[in-house]
Design brief:
Number of domains: 2
Structural class: alpha/beta
Oligomer: single chain
Strand order of the largest sheet: 3-2-1-4-5-6
Radius of gyration: 17 Å
Order of helices and strands: EHHHHHEHEHHEHEHEH
Strand content: 5-15%
Helix content: 40-55%
Length: about 220
C-alpha cells in the first residue's frame, strides 16, 4: 500500500475497528443486564448499546439509578470485559497499515469512547501499546461520539486539517463523529451491514484493512 504524501494522519476507533470486540462486549452486557430482566438480543445490542458510552447506556436503561449505583454497574461491566478480552486479534491488514503509516512519518491516532482501562488493556493484547499518538479518550475529554469533539481534538493535537486525515469507524455514532468533523471516513463493516454504513456519509466501506478497495482509497488521498 502506498500512502500519499498529502495524507498526514490515520485516525482509528478502537472497538469493532482495531479488533472485533463485539462478541466480548455483547456477552458481557448479557451477563450484566440479565439479572435486571433485560433480554439482550443482537438487535438490542446493535440499536441500544453499540458505539455508545457505557454511562449513557446505563442511564438510558436505568434512569432511576443513583450516580453511585450507575458507576458500580459500569465498573462491573468493564472489569468483566477486560477479563474476557485476552484472546482478541487485530483485524486483518491493521498491523501492516499502522506500520506503513509509521514508516512514512504520518500521525497514527486513536479516538475512542472506550474507558481508559479498556483502551490500554486492548492495545496491549493487540501488540499496539505504543502505536498511537495522540490517544483521545472520550471520558477524559468530557464529550463522546457522536459529537465531533473527539475527532476535532485529534486534529488539533496533530495540527492538521480534516482533509489531511482519514478516519476508520465501525459504528453509526463513530461515523457521525468523524463525518461531522469533516474527516474522510472509512466504514469498517465488522459489526454493521455495509449497506447501513454506506447511508451514513462514509467515503468507503471496507470489510477490514486488507480490503483491496481500501488500498486504492488510501493511495488516492
Amino acid at each position: 500500500m502506498t500512502i500519499s504524501s498529502k495524507l498526514k494522519a490515520l485516525l482509528f476507533d478502537l472497538d469493532g475497528t482495531l479488533a472485533d470486540t463485539t462478541a466480548v462486549h455483547y456477552e458481557t452486557w448479557v451477563e450484566v443486564l440479565e439479572p435486571y430482566g433485560y433480554n439482550v438480543t443482537w438487535d438490542f445490542y446493535r440499536d441500544r448499546i453499540s458505539g455508545r458510552l457505557t454511562p449513557e447506556v446505563i442511564a438510558d436503561l436505568f434512569p432511576n439509578l443513583s450516580d453511585e449505583e450507575a458507576q458500580e454497574m459500569a465498573e462491573k461491566k468493564e472489569a468483566q470485559f477486560r477479563e474476557q478480552a485476552g484472546d482478541l486479534q487485530p483485524l486483518p491488514g491493521l498491523l501492516d497499515l499502522v506500520e506503513k503509516g509509521r514508516e512514512r512519518g504520518i500521525g497514527i491516532a486513536l479516538v475512542t469512547n472506550a474507558p481508559k482501562d479498556n483502551v490500554f488493556a486492548v492495545l496491549n493484547v493487540l501488540g499496539l501499546g505504543d502505536a498511537f499518538d495522540p490517544v483521545v479518550i472520550a471520558e477524559e475529554l468530557g464529550v463522546g461520539k457522536p459529537d465531533p469533539g473527539p475527532y476535532q481534538a485529534a486534529l488539533e493535537a496533530l495540527s492538521i486539517s480534516a482533509d489531511e486525515a482519514v478516519a476508520f469507524e465501525d459504528s453509526p455514532s463513530g461515523i457521525a463523529s468523524s463525518v461531522d468533523a469533516g474527516i474522510p471516513t472509512v466504514g469498517i463493516a465488522s459489526v454493521h451491514d455495509p449497506e447501513d454504513l454506506e447511508e451514513l456519509g462514509v467515503d468507503l466501506v471496507a470489510q477490514n484493512f486488507a480490503d483491496p478497495k481500501l488500498k486504492t482509497f488510501i493511495d488516492s488521498r
